[in-house]
Structure formats: structure tokens, C-alpha cells
Design brief:
Strand order of the largest sheet of chain A: 2-3-4-1-5-6-7
Shape of chain B: elongated
Helix content of chain B: 40-55%
CATH architecture of chain A: 3-Layer(aba) Sandwich
Number of strands of chain B: 3
Distance between the termini of chain B: 38 Å
Oligomer: heterodimer
Mean pLDDT of chain B: 74
Radius of gyration of chain B: 18 Å
Helix content of chain A: 25-40%
Number of helices of chain B: 8
Number of domains of chain A: 1
Order of helices and strands of chain B: HHEHHEHHEHH
Largest interface: A-B, 58 and 55 residues
Structural class of chain A: alpha/beta
Shape of chain A: globular
CATH topology of chain A: Rossmann fold
Number of strands of chain A: 7
CATH superfamily of chain A: P-loop containing nucleotide triphosphate hydrolases
Number of domains of chain B: 1
Structural class of chain B: mainly alpha
């Protein structure tokens, strides 16, 4: 090509928005994919594979009936905030063996939502440990699978052993507005932490 | 599903253009990629690190005028990426839409950006700590009904 290549985006391409992200974490089958799909404006994109046979060994199927697929790689959606900001939601695999991905996902995130199934709260420990370690603000959200909170929130907070300053909320991953409010909790918590004078 | 997960992640191989066009003078595969059973990083000649090692998976990618004018000369995945990014997408979306391993997509996007086919808009990390930005995101979410 004789002319100097133009490094400008193609004409008509919209100016690239600033990407921001929130990480959605938690164990197998806690509702990460559901939460992303009810609020994303695009059909959630995923590298998820149906791993029924593998999940049969890993999931405690007696306590988590009818879960036939689970996230093994990464799924995500996005929300256009305004003309300049696009919010990405990345659902992270909750298992230790996928820990190598977490840095990529968590670095630069506005915050994280750790989704918990109250019937097996220990599944969220790796995520909580990780976010505590890297200092990423996070909120713990109990997914009300049947609309019922089976345990007292104070008991759950004790069992989770999280700092009293960390918000512990309940939500329904199938309900768009409930997911929106959970994300708002994350952002308000982040704002509190960043708004605090640096020590 | 009995395949191990990494096998299961492999999409069914797409027929490459040259397979059906072999009789009318299709050229040999220049980069040595096959049509099935590929290890994901074969597409990047085995490199796992992008030329820019810190490229974020949410970074926004858009084709340049140069890229739009000349992507026809590129092969396979590179051509697909430059063609796809006529509208702005994140690297994660590029990977999902083209069924590439996300790490592979990152390497290829970084290469194509270095060659001038794409421009990448990266997130600004001081900005992610910016209360004004967070408040804008809050207002945007509150508008969801």
C-alpha cells in the first residue's frame, strides 16, 4: 500500500466506549450465569461447556438437584451505561483450579459480587479469600433459590467470617431488578471505600 | 458429554474456505493451520503472551481504515477478527463470537493492533477508582427498569 495507512477507526464506527467491569463470583451452580443473563443487554456470551459427567462428581448433586451444566470457563454480558461507558459483567468460575484466570478478571474491576447458595456456603470461600487478598471491594449476596432465606443472615455472616463492613445481602438471580440492586450494592460499597480518605 | 472439558470447549471445526474451493486454484494454507483437532495456541504459533502482555479482556477493539481496506489479505482468524471489529467489541466478545480461546484472541488482537489493522481502547485503571465514574455507572444501572 502506497499511502500511509490510517490508524483511525473506520468511518461510522462509534467511538470506543470506556470499558468497566464487575466480577460475578461464586461456586458451582449458585446463579452466576442466571444473574448475568437477566441483566445483560446482549445474549450472554460464554465459553461454557456442558460438563454433566464432570459436574456429577464435583457438584454435591444431592443438595443441588437438576443442575446439569455449569460454568467451566467464562461467561459475560454487558450493559451500556451511557455513550461513553460500557459495563461488563464477568462470571468467574469459582473453583480453585481456575484461579489462574482470576487476576485477568479482577484487575481493574469496580468491584465484585460474590453469590452464595446458603445450603453450601463454603463454595464461596475461594472467591472471598481472593478478593480480600487483592483488596477488591465486594458484596456477598445470598441467592434466594426458592424465595426463602433458610438461615439467619447473622448466622450466615458468622459462618462466612467476613468483615462487618462487607455488605451481606439477599437477592434473586432470576429477577432483573434484584440483580440490578445487587450490582448497585457493589458499586455503593466501592464508592464508600474509594471515597474514604486514604490512610 | 464424555469429552474432557477442554475438548468439549472446541467448537465443531468450521469448513475452511479453501476446502470447498480447492479445484479452482485455492492456495496452500500459509500458516500451517489445519481444520480440526487444533490445540488453541497453534493459531498463535505457540505464543501465549500477547505482544502487549497486559491487554485486558474487556479492552475495546475497532478496525482501522487501513484494516478495513486490507483485511482481505489476512488469513483466517486474523481476517475474521478485523472484519468483525468494524463495530467496536471487547476482546472477550471477539473470543466468544469467533469461538476462540480467550487467550488466543488476546494474542491475535494485540498482534493486529501492532500491525495497524485494529485500534484498542483500553480501560483506564485510575478511572476505575474515580468516584465520578462509579456514580455515573450507578445512575446508569438505576435507569434499568
Amino acid at each position: 500500500m502506497d499511502s500511509k495507512p490510517s490508524a483511525e477507526p473506520v468511518p461510522g464506527a462509534t467511538r470506543a466506549p470506556v470499558p468497566v467491569k464487575i466480577v460475578i463470583a461464586g461456586g458451582f451452580g449458585v446463579g452466576k450465569t442466571t444473574a448475568v443473563s437477566v441483566i445483560s443487554e446482549i445474549a450472554p456470551l460464554t465459553t461454557e461447556a456442558a460438563i454433566t459427567s464432570v459436574a456429577a462428581d464435583i457438584d454435591r448433586t444431592g443438595q443441588v438437584p437438576a443442575k446439569t451444566t455449569t460454568t467451566v470457563a467464562l461467561d459475560f454480558g454487558c450493559i451500556t451505561i451511557d455513550q461513553e461507558i460500557k459495563l461488563y459483567l464477568f462470571g468467574t468460575p469459582g473453583q480453585d483450579r481456575f484461579g489462574f484466570m482470576w487476576h485477568d478478571l479482577a484487575y481493574g474491576a469496580l468491584g465484585a459480587l460474590v453469590i452464595v447458595d446458603a445450603r453450601r456456603i463454603d463454595d464461596c470461600y475461594p472467591a472471598v479469600d481472593y478478593f480480600e487478598k487483592v483488596g477488591l471491594p465486594f458484596v456477598v449476596a445470598i441467592n434466594l433459590f426458592d424465595g426463602v432465606l433458610t438461615h439467619d443472615l447473622a448466622d450466615l455472616r458468622w459462618a462466612l467470617a467476613i468483615d462487618p463492613a462487607i455488605p451481606l445481602i439477599t437477592f434473586d438471580a432470576r429477577d432483573r431488578l434484584s440483580v440490578r440492586d445487587a450490582l448497585l450494592s457493589v458499586l455503593r460499597h466501592t464508592l464508600e471505600k474509594t471515597g474514604a480518605p486514604a490512610s | 458429554m464424555t469429552l474432557p472439558p477442554e475438548e468439549a470447549d472446541e467448537p465443531p471445526p468450521e469448513p475452511r474456505p479453501y476446502l470447498s474451493a480447492g479445484h479452482d486454484g485455492a492456495v496452500a494454507v500459509p500458516d500451517g493451520t489445519g481444520v480440526s483437532g487444533l490445540r488453541p495456541y497453534l493459531l498463535t504459533a505457540g505464543r501465549v503472551e500477547p505482544v502487549d502482555q497486559t491487554l485486558e479482556i474487556e479492552a475495546q477493539v475497532v478496525t482501522t481504515e487501513f484494516g478495513a481496506a486490507s483485511y482481505g489479505q489476512l488469513a483466517f482468524e486474523a481476517r475474521d477478527i478485523v472484519s468483525l471489529c468494524a463495530t467496536t467489541l471487547s476482546i472477550a466478545e471477539v473470543a466468544a463470537k469467533l469461538r476462540l480461546h480467550i487467550g488466543v484472541a488476546r494474542v491475535l488482537v494485540a498482534d493486529l493492533a501492532a500491525l495497524g489493522y485494529l485500534v484498542v481502547r483500553r480501560p483506564s485503571f485510575p478511572l476505575s477508582q474515580d468516584p465520578n465514574l462509579i456514580e455515573r455507572v450507578i445512575r446508569g444501572l438505576e435507569a434499568i427498569r
